[in-house]
Amino acid sequence: MKRIGWFLVVLLAVLPGWAAKTRKMTVDQLKQLLVAAHQANTRDADVAKELEDVDLTEELTHGALEAMGPDVPGQLTTEQLFILEAKSAVLPPPASDIPTAPAPDAAAQKAMLDKALDYAAKTYAQLPAMTATKETRRFQDSAQIPPQAFGARSAGTFAPTILPIRYTTADSAQVTIRNGAEQALPEDKGQWGANGMIAMMSQPPVLSTVLNEAQQTGKISWVRWETVNGKQAAVFSYDVDKKKSTSEAVYCCFPQSTQAGDIAMRGQETAGGAGNYMNATSWKIWKAKVPYHGEIFIDPGTGVVVRLVTIAGLKGSDPVRTETQRIDYGDQTVGGKTLTVPVRTMIDTVVQPYPEDPQGRMIFRHTLFTEDYKNYSAGS
Questions:
Q1: So where are the chain's domains?
Q2: What angle do CA 254, 314, 163 make, to 5 degrees?
Q3: Is the pLDDT of residue 223 over 80?
């Protein structure tokens, strides 16, 4: 046991270096990188490898992503661009997507917010029951510890194998939406040890609930204009404290603390890599009520909300470190009527696979989800 403890202490020393290995880049710089690689006939695998370390400082919009198409050498680079799109989903866009119109005065801001609040309560919250097909794609990284590391006697003779974020799985599910709220799917029995993936079990943010709670706090402020789908949208920030929040973060599943200390070693014995928890027999769901903040994107003429960003206010001691969600809304024909409904969601999460083991605090798992809603139909 002493050897395991020593090993994990050294592991903590090397992992921060992995987290810091990023290159800050604007969208324009990313485009220039792709153009240069194209002109040099750089291989797809080499371009994708270079993009693994990129950290964008602004949103990679879908339009900008499509414009890069002629300079993309292949599927591996396309995959990394999809990852960058999801990772940057809640950042401000490049200046070219920010209209130069001056900020509205206080009266005009209030009028837009009043329209949005009225829309959320009287239109969105009154949407009829409907069903849709939700197609989910998962992108995830991982960290594996080489078996020989447990026999190492000096620091620097080993390092964890860090696998960058890659596409892992896709699935399709039929979801039900009532009064604008997506109903939670049946409990996912998957566990870290069984499938190596987290399961988000909380209900997705509900537009009418978020705006109601934001209004109650009184913390809604003007941010900027932004072009969304070719139209000018008014962007407001909001902040919902824990007392007003009804939001819950619910994740499955984490090994019990009594087991976490020796799971890494057992993973080596059975599968050759830490982070494999196949031998764990006791798991628990983590659930917490959380404050949250984010941005609301409003059509200034109608009050229709075209985008919602929510960022969970998680604590440094929580096993879930990051949860950001962006929901894009669009018009769909449902039962012969045109309704504004969720069409795409992008989610960014960072968790600690075995958080209650003090020796394993620096082991993180980064997972991105993109969800597309299609085939809307009237429900019951």
A1: 2-87, 99-378
A2: 55
A3: yes
